[in-house]
């Protein structure tokens, strides 16, 4: 990042922080229909990845990119994510209902849910998610196995976003920005590790 220029109040890092928060707020608005959540998060990751390449990371650029990319595949990804969340919630409710083996079912369901969430979030961070969700999910699942450290970082990012939203509810509307930044950083980290001889 370039140094702060004379007379500049905030440096480039503070500008990036403000851009991340504005993209987070835009992502929250775009996630409200629920079915658009994967596309909204994927677009946020793409916009923040562009900041590394010198493109502006603004809410205007975010909405322009989101408008161009919303298609049937994005809505199918949202439907799949929503259906998975509902199935997990139903499984956990059944496990708490006192069924025999309910505790084991809850542990297995929670484990599968966490793995699916990490793979889905890593898919959102991949550039392929802009055009082909199947490829993005396949490569993200491979990354989850090959890069356990990155998967751990994704879990920490989700836990941090959830904790911030729990502590101060208005932060829930800004949390997707830092979460998208963390997901993008994990994906870039993965690329950098792959290129080290």
Can you characterise this structure?
The chain is mainly alpha-helical. The protein contains eight helices and no strands. The protein has helices at 12-31, 37-52, 59-69, 72-96, 102-125, 133-146, 148-167, 176-195. α2 (37-52) crosses α8. The model has no long low-confidence stretch (mean pLDDT 87). The chain crosses the membrane at residues 20-48, 75-95, 101-124, 145-169. It comes from Streptomyces coerulescens. Keywords: Membrane, Transmembrane, Transmembrane helix. This is Integral membrane protein.
> N-to-C SSE series?
HHHHHHHH
Q: Tally the helices: what do you get?
A: 8
Radius of gyration: 18 Å
What percentage of the residues does DSSP assign to strands (E)? under 5%
Which structural class do you get from the secondary structure elements? Answer: mainly alpha
Helix content: over 70%
Number of strands: 0
Question: What is the rounded distance between the termini?
Answer: 26 Å
Bulk shape:
globular
